[in-house]
Fold each of these.
Amino acid sequence: MREVVRAEEGEVFDIELEESLLEANRRLAEENRALLDKFGVRAIDVMGSVGSGKTSLISRLVESLRGRYRMAYIAGDLTTTIDADLIAAHGIPVVQVNTGKECHLDANLVAKALKRLNLADLDLIFIENVGNLICPAEFPLGSHQRLVVVSVTEGPYVVLKHPYIFMEADVAVINKVDLAGHLGIDLAKLEGDLRAVNPSIKIVRTCCLTGEGIGDVIEALGL
Amino acid sequence: MHELSVTKRLFDLALRAALENEAEEVREVRLSIGRLSLVNPDQLVFWFRELSRGTVLEGARLYIELEEAEVECPSCGYRGPISLEDRPEYHLVFPTLRCPACGHKVKVLKGRDCVIKSMRVLRKK
């Protein structure tokens, strides 16, 4: 075997960087929060899987809170405006954010959306994240609270399979509880899993189709 | 899932540092990925290779160190590794924010981030 040692022509040296790849988003999230606080607006980030009932929940909340808060809605969606149209029917300001192919909203997109709203005329903003139980956990938006909607149709192991998003959340809403019996889902066990991951998470059972539990969500959010 | 966007940021930071330091070639890039971060190291390496083609970063070796998650309990003062809970019936181990000492919710101190630590570059004399 022949070994070859080549002389270095240049100079090899180390560059210290220590730069965070997630820090830029966090900084923007803090700016969003400062902007919201300046206008006294509270923002709630609503996360959850595709089809878990995020839009239905927000629709119910807007209906129930009408007259008490001046509300707006930021809808994150890959391509469509279906959700935005649904909430716009309540007559509140709506900003649609199409993320294209991105799997989550980030603080920069939310900053752009906030520019489209007249914050002085608002008290409360619902931000609906992209339907996904993984990525949004890593990208704070500057919201005051984070809520995850999880429906019984997602199966009995959904919480333990996706612990990270529940670690980041203040409130977990278990939706479609009317179907739990049909699907053989043990709600108490699902709640136990949520508490196992995050002992301080507030848990509410809902059926957004009928409006069951919406009052409890409002209470859990302190609204 | 968002490895491409995170890797793009890594790539941009590394490329900028390489150009600022007049590097002809980047030999090594050292990263630290927190255990609680959702970035998958294998996917990150894949995207980094794709993005770096035809640049001074092409061929650079990526060294990834996994940062352990450290937590602190505001209630009892516990400070140390995050607890893991085992559910043998599902062959599943998952992290929990429950304090191993008192059960209160802990605060995460370390393990969430994804950091580019340093680079080793070759500069032409």
Amino acid sequence: MNKRIVLITLLIILCSVGIYIYKEYNRKPASLNNLPAVLNINADTLISQFALNEAEANKKYLGKVISVKGFINKIDNQQDTLLTILLGDSLLSSSVSCLMDTGYIKLKKVFTPGTQITIKGICTGYLMDVELNRCVVE
Amino acid sequence: MKKHSSVLLFLLFFSVTLVAQKKLFTKTGTITFNSKTSIEKIQAVNKKVLAVLDVANNKIEFAVLIKGFEFEKALMQEHFNENYLESDKFPKATFKGKFDDTNFTILAEENKTVTVNISGSLTLHGVTKPVTAKALITTKNKTVSAASSFTILLSDYSIKIPAVNKNNVNNQVQININLANLQEMK
């Protein structure tokens, strides 16, 4: 009787470990719709922080989910495969470049330059622009 | 007649210098990489590659953010960033190189494809190594695009594969670069 209980317990543990490993292995990157932003910031402030001291800004923002508020200065829609919304003062040489979640391409939502918007994304760093990935509109 | 030919000469000269002074760029180039073993296939894509093609000086430069690589599986992406590429410490990869062939008159022609040889240095994971590759440059519908593909060894860039993953991750990784619709830099 005792042996049976031990065996069943072991089997349950083994099964749950197996299920956990399987689920963890096949886990998809989480949608940003379900992740809260760790901080809110204005687009122009973010750009100037990266332009002034990239290493310092990297420490603050790299890999973090951030929510950026700013004016749309350009929309780059490449053959419906890649939708990028650029935020910030169009007179500056840099923008916050938000690569939108692929779901937004299908949505065909209309974005208008000059309007203010808040976009949540993962900050991946700074090239010519401050780059945000997997962005969603807040 | 003399006047005409000088105008023609001027025009010819002007159009050639126009081509020669061109700097082309894109902020939305694509890099994919593949690592394949009998057990596992690992693939990732980065759609925000910055590339500048300096035609006048035969130079080409790339920069890409490591955290911008997207994997199908979240766990792979986390391991890639934390254990392999250490993207908090080394957020960027860059390539600086030159075209070994210097004939860019193709850029003025329509519907042409040429193969060029590129040599330069790739900086990845804080290590810089020489790389050579062939690239295809195509002109079509008044746009210029470029593509290249080469392989690197992870061990060259001090990227360690943990013993437990030896059979899942190939030391040899294929890298494909695609730059569509290069724009003229103003």
